[in-house]
Amino acid sequence: MVESFDDDAVSLGSCGVSDDDIVEGESVTLEATVSNDNGPGAVVLVGFYANGSLLDTVEVDVSGGGSEGVELDVVFDDPGEVDVTVAFESVSEL
C-alpha cells in the first residue's frame, strides 16, 4: 500500500494529447506536466484515465521548484470519442 503525504506545493499543470486526430488502432501519446512550487522534492504517481477507467500510472520524481513532463503511449482500439483525464498523488518526499 502506498501512503501519501500532504504536499500542497505539488500541482498538475498542462495536459494534452500528441495528436487531435486519433486513428483507431494507432498509438497516441498522453502528456502531463507535474510542478513542485518550492516544496520538498516529491515522488508523484500520475494516473491516466480513459472514460473513467485507469489506463496506467507513471511515477516521476519532481525536485523542489521544478517540473517534470510525464508521457504515456496508448492505443485506442474502439472508434468514437474518448474522455481522457489525469490525476496525481504525491506519495513520498525525495
Indicate the low-confidence ranges by residue numbers.
1-6
Looking at CATH, the homologous superfamily is Immunoglobulins
Strand content: over 45%
Q: How many E-type strands?
A: 6
Instruction: Please give the CATH class.
Output: Mainly Beta
Q: Summarize model confidence as the mean pLDDT.
A: 87
What is the correct CATH architecture?
A: Sandwich
Describe the global form.
Answer: elongated
Number of DSSP helical runs = 0
Helicity, in percent?
under 10%
Describe the main β-sheet briefly. Answer: 3 strands, antiparallel
The total number of structural domains is 1
How far is it from the N-terminal to the C-terminal residue, by CA? 18 Å
CATH topology: Immunoglobulin-like
Radius of gyration, CA atoms, in whole angstroms: 14 Å
Structure class: mainly beta
- Strand line-up of the largest beta sheet: 1-2-5
Give a written overview of the molecule.
The chain has one domain: Immunoglobulin-like. With 94 residues, the protein is mostly beta strands. The protein is 0% helix and 60% strand. It is built from no helices and six strands. Mean pLDDT is 87; it is low at 1-6. It has a three-stranded antiparallel β-sheet with strand order 1-2-5, with no helix packed on it. A three-stranded antiparallel β-sheet has the order 4-3-6, with no helix packed on it.
